[in-house]
Amino acid sequence: MSSSPYGSWSSSFSPASVAASSPRIDGARFVGTEIWWGESVPSQKGRVTVRSSSGAEILPAPWSARSRVHEYGGGAWTADHAGTLYFVDAGDQRVHRMVRGAEPVPLTASGPAHGGLRVQGGRLLAVREDLATTPHTRAIIEIPLDGSAADDPSAIRVIARGEGFYAHPALSPDGTRAAWVAWNRGRMPWEEAHLQVGALDGGQPQTVRSRAALQPEWISDSDLVFADDPDDRWGLYRVTLDGVAPVAAPRPIAPADADTGYGLWVLGNRWFRPLDDGRIVAVRTNGRDAVVIIDPDGTVRPIDVPADGHVSVDDVDGSRVLLSGNGSRVDPGLWCVDVDSGDVVAVRGGAEVDPHWMPPAVSIEVEGPHGAVHAFAYPPAHPEATAPDGELPPYVVLVHGGPTAHVTGASSASIAFYTSRGIGVLDVNYGGSTGYGRAYRERLDGQWGVVDVDDVIAAATGLADAGLADPARIAIRGGSAGGWTVLSALVRGGAFAVGISRYGVADLRMLVAETHDFEASYIDGLVGPLPEYEQLYIERSPLTHTDRIDVPVLLQQGGEDRVVPPSQSEAIRDALAARGVDHEYVLYPAEGHGFRSAETIVDALDRELRFLGRVFGFEPRL
Q1: Among the listed residues 471, 477, 462, 478, the one whose alpha carbon sits nearest the alpha carbon of residue 494
Q2: Do 371 and 413 fall within a single domain?
Q3: Is position 551 within any domain?
Q4: Which residue segment(s) compose the domain that 343 sits in?
Q5: Which of 15, 219, 380, 407 could form a disulfide with 605 if both were Cys (CB 3.0 to 4.6 A apart)?
């Protein structure tokens, strides 16, 4: 073994290889004898195509299946068993129908955006968002498949419409009713969202008693299964209907100390699927994911699958299930699993990682000012390199966005990019994260900029106190809400020697004034409503206290970001420049909220590593 300082180890995980690494799967379907899936193509500026297990590309360039509903989109494509593709084009947000090998044909008119597509019984349901109306409106709709609505919008059947938000439309087996999830402006769906049922021939929809409902699925003409968290955990519930009205209160199905559900950021996630024989395949999350099958009598049996992070149950066919996600010992991918035979086939990605380069993350728990803090640690790892005796490794503390999201300790090339060079990574699920129950999630209520900062500092300090990290060389990196925590932690001072903020929130009043509808009231719960909390907005915002930032900062920003516009990062840049604080600012003009292009991913990683090397005193090998 060769000895060289941490951070300077040679590695095959180049920025280019990271950008070209494991696919980003966007849904999957059984189509005839094939399996189709959506996949992001970084080399084509993040275009989302649809591919087939036959090796064919179903959706050719330049078409891209991407929705902008609720800004984060999701459910941008689906297909029927005969092989007809339905997709939302990223450019015009219209729904198109494409028979394999033919040109796509529009099914909706220009103007509104669409997402959450679902084809059932030969009928196509969708979520529609119209930002041209005042106030903005959204709806659950049925789109005629003959193309008549492309020129005549009145041909669309509107099932439910309002100023709030909608998700997860599902058609009853007899085709007379639909179920969906709805929530009002001023609330986020993980705070309060309701299951609703409506008749397609009109009438007032009925609301089923629910607190934070997710994903209704019909299991008969009179029974629905959905996820909800009336207590501390999202779990499955069954409700029996008389028409559209519930006969009795929903009944729990196999309760567990784990979540079947997640923050409803995108419209395409699926946490469970009923099988035709009455069993249910479900994901249960307690930090990491587990996949189980629930028998009609409530018996629960685990299914041995490679994926244990952000698992989506994309489709079922008999005893076969399509699961996409990532894993602690495998690359992200898509698997076809037979729940009876136990057979597992990797359809796309899912290769086992080399444990010498990428050992499994270590789940850690430290005590913070507000209670336990959960995180995953990735120590430096290299089969042929070691550091000089007595040297402690530098670490990068990762702060996820949301903030209502979570990380799962998954392996990834982007993490190995650092660990293989001798830089440890600590991925923190600070208070406010999902995956540990509602109480953990609500720890952040009214305390954004306090609890999240306390928790990442506690995690970083705990690592250093245990003698696992060099306390003088700990960096913090995060994007979006994670960028806010980065900047807030730098304002606090003392714990981190470098900050890397990707499209981070810098000023709360700017965020409220500039952000989009979906998150317009998010800050009300995280900090407090305006105008009565304006002084707190000022006090909490990192931009107010840039005079306290005294360490180098790297700022990276997408020019087309409509969630956190460039004005936020540029305000921090200008304040740091005025004080002569070491910083770099990079604007990627064609990127939105999140980097998708291979060119951007390569440049961002290259800059981050060089920046860390310059500040921490090592010479990186790229």
Answers
A1: 471
A2: yes
A3: yes
A4: 270-350
A5: 15
